[in-house]
């Protein structure tokens, strides 16, 4: 089933008198249940693409349909609702609220979707157990390791049952062993039926995905499905 | 549901940064304390003034030679008026059927002595014996002087509470002898406490029969003000008109000339004093409002810093689905919480301070709810007014920029 559909999307920034095209006509389809990595060097436009897919921004031109909804022309508040329901963000720097417990951090998206307090609590506990943090719920971020923090962030991303888990360099701030743990968790979540989009510049992280889209100079330069052999090689490399 | 959850977010943010919250609250407390303290004090003084003036007696007015003089030329003009003496009492009584009673009072002041103690420059009033019934002065102990004592110019005095305190210090003054200008007077009664006006005690007085004042103080005792009491509030105007007619004819004022005397009601005096003190009151109340504005700007600044510091948090909340209105509400609730707490302490401190100032001025009026309403009103207004800009600013942040904010 088609989840993401973009048609010739452009993103243009005006810097003084100059127009900078961050995306130059990206057409892309992603189906439900896919495990996609978006790669590209810095400045390639991959962050811009991620922001658009994550509904943090709208394209200058072109169409973007997410789960049947035309999000390309939505207002700020409509986008906020889509982000709340359809997107689960995982950031490189975790972006947890420092003074809140793991449980409260995971509850946050549910506050904005209007869930009552006891439902919030229940869903947050389930999400934290999914990432094996059932015993760390009352800890604050500074009492958790980097890997645990990222798992809290993933629980937060999942708690509202979004259509997409959108992870932007999820292992960028983690050591290799913890990175492997987090990627294993991603793999598991994918097996459980979640659609996952990884934005990364590390080939061995991207190799966890089943499909790698490479962005260069604002355009898709390569879009290939990884065979299991390639996946293994990527992981070794 | 969302509203409560967002309120809790706001509260935990306030609680989470105690230093910043404390400073914000402090800014509010200072402003509101000063407003409440000053407004309550001014209000207390005002209601005290009305109390004291009501002591002048209900339905009464005075006939004076000078009235209220506001300029030198007016004084010069009125100085040429014939004096008013007690000889007008009987004609008014005869010619005014709306008048219940007419009395007179003359004024002097002098040092008074009891034993080795001296009280300097005490206000002395000579009064006709019907005076007490016309004025709302109550007898605390002893009695007021009688008609016979007034007719016989007896050396008897009826004294105020301050005289008792300063001269007698615990001794029972009744029946004791005080000396005024080497003459001896017997204390026969003590008045109830009146209070103070503009920080000046109204209990430092000595009343004696008007005839005694005339006898012992000479010419001073001849110049009097008349005190006229109307039969009822409704007939006060009528009584004033009839009195005017009697006086004009007795004083031979030609029909085309103005009165050569002034009639004063307690209300008129009070409203004159009010116009006189209005500017003073406005400034007194306006000054602390300035400090409220400054306090509000402090609050706004701290909230702006808070918004900047928490840019990333705002970005995260937006990425998780917070709408502009959610972010705006959270920051507004934060400011309102801080200003409400500030307001609460401000009311507490302000009323305490006002109480202290008033009791130092020897004013004992019951406090009103005005300060509370004012405090709540101001703190809410300040919270809303100075909170809205930072809140809107936070709500409008671009989530992408906010998320990449270092």
Strand order of the largest sheet of chain B: 2-3-10-5-7-6
Please bin the fraction of helical residues of chain B: 55-70%
For the sheet with most strands of chain A, the description reads:
6 strands, mixed
- Average predicted confidence as pLDDT of chain B: 87
| N- to C-terminal distance of chain A | 33 Å
Shape of chain A: globular
Number of helices of chain B: 14
Q: Strand arrangement, largest sheet of chain A?
A: 6-7-8-3-9-10
Number of strands of chain B: 12
Which runs of chain B of at least 5 residues are low in confidence (pLDDT < 50)?
none
Q: How many whole angstroms does the radius of gyration of chain B measure?
A: 32 Å
Assembly state: heterodimer
**Proportion of residues in β-strands of chain A:** 25-35%
Strand content of chain B: 15-25%
CA(first)-CA(last) distance of chain B? 33 Å
How many beta-strand segments of chain A?
10
List its traits.
heterodimer; A: 237 residues; four-stranded antiparallel beta sheet; B: alpha+beta; six-stranded mixed beta barrel; 18% strand; elongated
SSE topology:
The complex is a heterodimer of chains A (237) and B (406).
Chain A: E1 2-15, E2 18-31, E3 35-39, H1 46-53, E4 61-66, E5 69-70, H2 76-86, E6 87-90, H3 102-113, H4 117-130, H5 146-158, E7 164-168, H6 176-191, E8 195-199, H7 203-206, E9 211-216, E10 219-225, H8 228-236
Parallel strand pairs in A: 3-8, 3-9, 6-7, 7-8
Antiparallel strand pairs in A: 1-2, 1-4, 4-5, 9-10
Chain B: H1 2-16, H2 18-54, E1 60-64, H3 72-79, H4 89-95, E2 99-114, E3 117-127, H5 131-134, E4 139-142, H6 147-151, E5 156-159, H7 161-168, E6 177-180, E7 183-191, E8 196-197, E9 200-201, E10 205-209, H8 210-217, E11 224-230, H9 236-250, E12 262-264, H10 266-309, H11 311-319, H12 324-360, H13 370-395, H14 399-403
Parallel strand pairs in B: 3-10, 5-7
Antiparallel strand pairs in B: 1-11, 1-12, 2-3, 2-6, 2-11, 4-7, 5-10, 6-7, 8-9
Helix pairs in contact in B: 1-12, 2-10, 2-12, 2-13, 10-13, 12-13
């Amino acid at each position: 089933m088609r989840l993401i559909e973009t048609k010739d999307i452009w993103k243009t920034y005006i810097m003084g008198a100059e127009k900078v095209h961050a995306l130059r006509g990206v057409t892309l389809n992603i189906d439900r249940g896919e495990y996609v990595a978006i790669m590209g060097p810095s400045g390639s436009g991959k962050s811009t693409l991620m922001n658009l897919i994550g509904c943090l921004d709208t394209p200058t031109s072109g169409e973007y349909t997410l789960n049947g909804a035309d999000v390309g022309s939505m207002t700020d508040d409509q986008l906020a609702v889509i982000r709340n329901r359809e997107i689960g963000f995982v950031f490189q720097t975790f972006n947890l609220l420092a003074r809140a417990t793991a449980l409260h951090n995971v509850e946050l998206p549910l506050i904005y979707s209007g869930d009552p307090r006891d439902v919030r609590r229940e869903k947050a506990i389930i999400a934290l157990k999914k990432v094996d943090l059932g015993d760390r719920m009352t800890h604050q971020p500074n009492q958790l390791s980097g890997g645990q923090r990222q798992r809290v962030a993933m629980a937060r991303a999942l708690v509202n049952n979004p259509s997409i888990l959108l992870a932007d360099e999820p292992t960028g701030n983690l050591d290799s062993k913890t990175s492997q743990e987090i990627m294993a968790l991603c793999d598991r979540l994918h097996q459980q039926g979640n659609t996952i989009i990884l934005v990364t510049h590390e080939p061995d992280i991207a190799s966890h995905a089943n499909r790698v889209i490479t962005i260069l100079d604002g355009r898709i330069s390569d879009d290939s499905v990884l065979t299991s052999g390639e996946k293994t090689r990527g992981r070794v490399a | 549901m969302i509203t409560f959850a967002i309120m809790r977010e706001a509260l935990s943010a306030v609680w989470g940064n105690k230093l910043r919250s404390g400073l914000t609250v402090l800014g509010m407390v200072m402003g509101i304390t000063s407003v409440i303290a000053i407004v309550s004090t001014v209000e207390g003084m005002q209601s005290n003034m009305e109390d004291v003036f009501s002591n002048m007696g209900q339905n009464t007015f005075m006939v004076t030679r000078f009235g209220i003089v506001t300029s030198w030329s007016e004084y010069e003009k009125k100085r040429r008026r014939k004096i008013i003496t007690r000889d007008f009492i009987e004609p008014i009584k005869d010619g005014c059927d709306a008048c219940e009673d007419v009395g007179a009072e003359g004024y002097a002041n002098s040092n008074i002595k009891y034993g080795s103690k001296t009280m300097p420059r005490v206000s002395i009033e000579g009064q006709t014996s019907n005076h007490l019934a016309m004025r709302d002065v109550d007898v605390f102990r002893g009695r007021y002087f009688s008609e016979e004592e007034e007719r016989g110019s007896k050396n008897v005095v009826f004294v105020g509470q301050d005289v008792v305190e300063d001269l007698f210090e615990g001794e029972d003054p009744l029946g004791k002898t005080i000396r005024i200008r080497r003459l001896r007077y017997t204390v026969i009664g003590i008045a109830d406490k009146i209070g103070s006006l503009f920080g000046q005690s109204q209990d430092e007085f000595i009343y004696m029969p008007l005839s005694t004042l005339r006898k012992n103080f000479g010419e001073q005792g001849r110049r009097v003000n008349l005190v006229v009491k109307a039969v009822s509030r409704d007939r006060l105007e009528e009584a004033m008109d009839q009195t005017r007619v009697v006086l004009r004819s007795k004083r031979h004022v030609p029909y085309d000339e103005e009165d050569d005397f002034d009639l004063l009601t307690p209300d008129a005096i009070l409203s004159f004093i009010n116009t006189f003190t209005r500017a003073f009151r406005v400034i007194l109340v306006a000054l602390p409002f300035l400090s409220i504005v400054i306090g509000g700007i402090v609050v706004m600044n701290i909230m702006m810093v808070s918004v900047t510091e928490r840019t990333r948090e705002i970005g995260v909340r937006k990425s998780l689905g917070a709408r502009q209105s959610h972010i705006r509400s959270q920051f507004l609730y934060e400011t309102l919480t801080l200003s409400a707490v500030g307001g609460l302490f401000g009311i507490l401190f302000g009323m305490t301070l006002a109480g202290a100032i008033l009791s130092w001025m020897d004013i004992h009026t019951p406090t009103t709810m005005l300060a509370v309403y004012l405090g709540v009103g101001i703190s809410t207004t300040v919270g809303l007014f100075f909170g809205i800009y930072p809140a809107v600013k936070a709500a409008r942040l671009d989530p992408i920029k906010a998320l990449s904010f270092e």
